[in-house]
Amino acid sequence: MTNETPRPNRSGKPRFQGDHKPRGEQGAKPQFRGGNAKPTTNHRRHREEPEEKFIRRAIPDIDTPFTRMGIDARVAVNLPPMGIEAPSPIQEKSIPGIVAGRDLLGLAQTGTGKTAAFGLPMLTRLLNIGRKPEPKTCRALILAPTRELATQIAENIDAYAAGTAIRQFRVVGGASINVQTMRMERGVDVLIATPGRLIDLIERGAVDLSQTKYLVLDEADQMLDIGFIHALRRIAKMLPRDRQTLLFSATMPKLMEELAESYLSDPLKVAVNPPGQAAAKIDQGVHFVTQGDKATLLAEYLGKHRDELAIVFGRTKHGCEKLSKLLEKWGFKVASIHGNKSQGQRERALSGFRAGETKVLVATDVAARGIDIPEVAHIYNYDLPNVPENYVHRIGRTARAGRDGRAIAFCAPAEIGELRAIEKAMKSQIPVVGGEVPFEASKIRERGGPAGRPGNNNAQGARKRPARRPSRAPKSVQRD
Ligand code: AMP
């Protein structure tokens, strides 16, 4: 995908000629939403203003909560049409420090507004440079674990930077490396990359990081989970020491502390949700069920909310594909995304889901990371994740943009260990909403206090002899 728009005229002509008005005064501003419609994450409409691409606008004379925090008015003016009127907590806590040049360690999940938290100060800084990037270089580098998250960041940056001369370019696996190499010949303001593809491009001599003064590591814990630690260590060595670095992570495992230490210098620390804790508006539950009955149970849950968007998380690519075919056979509008799907297939699946054409998305952890679709009302943990922190990421795909959401975990007898690890990481028990509590789980729950919801007979009543504990070691995290 060529995800950039042509560079505007930089001939140095006066910014305003004829009738051009500052953006804030323009009558026909690109709209993200009609009337009172909800904000959408599809910001591509900004690209539908061809004649405006070539106009460098003057700095609008506006006073907003963002300009007061030091964000350039040329960027701040783009925010209200996107439904961004006032800073979110992570933005409020981090933007002033970032604008002042501090490194940042941000503990925040997707959905908190962290893209704007790092994107707005980054664009402000880039706008003040005012020179073209040198060939093969990028002034700012944003590293993200997955193609989907990279795409989402790219769309956000395009929207925040609309009407300015700043351009981003996204380099991810699954797209032509030759096209990416050719594009990098010119250099770019903001490079958004997955670590693996970035290393490939560096090895080809297509990317030079010596001029990169602004670095963002987004969802860094997920980058570690999928084995990017070596790539990150190599990238760290190629960057100038004199740079500003922002690291965002939803959790803070040990390895992350090491990474943070090597990348950050005297960082400002900001947390919006304590690490490993789920957002308050998610109504969580665990349903005990045998592995063999999971598909039927899922169909029952899905059948009750046919018109609402649901994401179903499976553990393996093969398992997700099989489940998605089965649900399709049973009449659900379903798509799947996992590492065996091509970039095009993943993007089509996501856009169909975002548009509500498919209601159910069956996904592996890695492929679903970073999905930001406010309409997602239900999360089903069809298989429990074997990395407990991924539970928090998964359920964080719902209850976004101030909405409510529901997350049901299907726990088979062999998954009690995973459930326990999740509850330990979250420091709270997930209420039982159905099924028979297996003996092992009930013992754990007794020790930790009552588990089920009041009035839930299943939760407090029936117990079963323990199923045999799985003898296999937990599989390592799947690499997509
Ligand atoms: P993020 O956490 O960056 O993935 O952002 C999640 C969603 O929140 C995106 O759709 C943003 O456009 C939106 N958003 C970001 N900041 C704000 C804000 N201050 N007010 C309202 N919406 C926001």
Quick rundown:
This protein has 480 residues and is α/β, with parallel strands linked by helices. It is built from 18 helices and 16 strands. Adenosine monophosphate binds next to α4.
Commentary on this structure:
The structure is a single chain. It contains 18 helices and 16 strands. The strands form three sheets. It has a seven-stranded parallel sheet, with helices on both faces. Strands 10-11-9-12-13-8-14 form a seven-stranded parallel sheet, with helices on both faces. The chain has two domains: 208 residues, P-loop containing nucleotide triphosphate hydrolases (Rossmann fold, 3-Layer(aba) Sandwich), CATH 3.40.50; 196 residues, P-loop containing nucleotide triphosphate hydrolases (Rossmann fold, 3-Layer(aba) Sandwich), CATH 3.40.50. With 480 residues, the chain is α/β, with parallel strands linked by helices. Helix 3 runs parallel beside helix 4 and helix 4 crosses helix 5. Adenosine monophosphate (AMP) binds next to helix 4.
